[in-house]
């Protein structure tokens, strides 16, 4: 889950830089989804886990997370199971597709972007694990110690600021930490 928070924050930083928008179709960055039911999936849907992308426990936790050599390609190649925005799943595969979104939007490898825009400025000594194809793991790959995660948490307590530098906008922090009650989620 910490990796998903880092990935989400990288999306927020890229949005702050004008490189993408949460409401962009993810297919702008994942051309394989053009002309398919996944064309309507937005980056917001991916970050919010309501993309409707295919999910099953076996697919997510075995086929993609353990077996697939290229986890990004596997995740992108899954079908659309539900209409975007209508169904919530804790979907590791959908989060992994953000690796391609971030890389395409920024023109950088996701880990390089993270080092430059997030880890470096915060003084974090962090790496992101990669799959056998060399893709950074967006859903579970952050390798960080307690002090590094404390720095990340403190960034959010300071509304995205680190000293005099705004790492990610306070608007992103507010939206990313907005809590919905269980009752609101099932309405």
Write a brief caption for the model.
The protein has helices at residues 2-16, 43-48, 57-67, 71-77, 92-106, 110-122, 146-157, 170-176, 182-186; strands at residues 127-128, 142-143, 161-162, 165-166.
Characterise this structure:
The chain is mostly helical and 187 residues long. Helix content is 49%, strand content 4%. The chain has nine helices and four strands; from the N terminus they run H-H-H-H-H-H-E-E-H-E-E-H-H. The strands form two sheets. The chain has a two-stranded antiparallel sheet with strand order 1-2. Strands 3-4 form a two-stranded antiparallel ribbon. A hairpin with a 2-residue loop joins strand 3 and strand 4. Helix 1 runs parallel beside helix 5, helix 1 packs across helix 6 (110-122) and helix 4 packs across helix 5 (92-106). The longest helix is centred in the N-terminal third of the chain and has 15 residues, at 2-16. It is globular, with a radius of gyration of 16 Å. The model has no long low-confidence stretch (mean pLDDT 95).
Number of alpha- plus pi-helical segments: 9
Given helix and strand content, the structural type is mainly alpha
Low-confidence spans: none
- The percent range for strand residues is under 5%
* Number of β-strand runs: 4
Q: How far apart are the first and last residues' alpha carbons, in Å?
A: 25 Å
Layout of SSEs?
Blueprint lengths: L1 H15 L26 H6 L8 H11 L3 H7 L14 H15 L3 H13 L4 E2 L13 E2 L2 H12 L3 E2 L2 E2 L3 H7 L5 H5 L1
Antiparallel strand pairs: 1-2, 3-4
